[in-house]
């Protein structure tokens, strides 16, 4: 249900999520150290956009945009759900109906981030800063990265339909709007010295999606079916 609008969410299944015990962890140095450690001794090919996956009796052929191909005994598909929904990758033969149905029935939502770096801290030492807005087209909350990292950074989170609309703005317009909301909470807010704006909904590398969701009228089993294997193709992540 995360990052989509309430009128799209299944009332029956919205809370069917296993909540793990313990607190939330923050990767203070980002995911880069983890990725580099996991990537050691692996043959990784960057900038290889997959266009087709061909199934044969005893092999799988992965075709790339530049014309090259890779042959393997099996393949694990970990692309975002939005890639499968957009039919960017062709499958030969086509995926079975039960697999296509599970992909179709799963909803998608996005949550964009506007990271703001300031010269100094002017906000309270709390993890989250929130504001009750008069409409849904306003900032939901700010994450205080200074509390965990020591850097004077706030990250504004926008989700759902508002996040899609937000992507139509330029970086400068996005920051201006976010700062206008922040100044309503903290009138003494200073202007940021650096900023970074994400656009997950229109980024082809992430295929227009950030979070999967159980749609109105769909069953929770579609999320389970979406990761079941098919022949020598395995699906992981949201797919």
From TrEMBL:
Domain Amine oxidase stretches: 22-239
Keywords, comma-separated and alphabetical: Methyltransferase, Transferase
Keyword Methyltransferase among record annotations: yes
Signal peptide residues on this chain, from the entry's feature table: none
Pfam families: Amino_oxidase (PF01593)
One annotated GO biological process: spermine catabolic process
Gene3D superfamilies: 3.90.660.10, FAD/NAD(P)-binding domain
GO cellular component assignments: peroxisome
Keyword Zinc-finger set for record: no
GO molecular function, one term: spermine oxidase activity
Record-linked InterPro entries: Amino_oxidase, FAD/NAD-bd_sf, Flavin_monoamine_oxidase
UniProt similarity note: Belongs to the flavin monoamine oxidase family.
Protein name, UniProt field: Lysine-specific histone demethylase 1
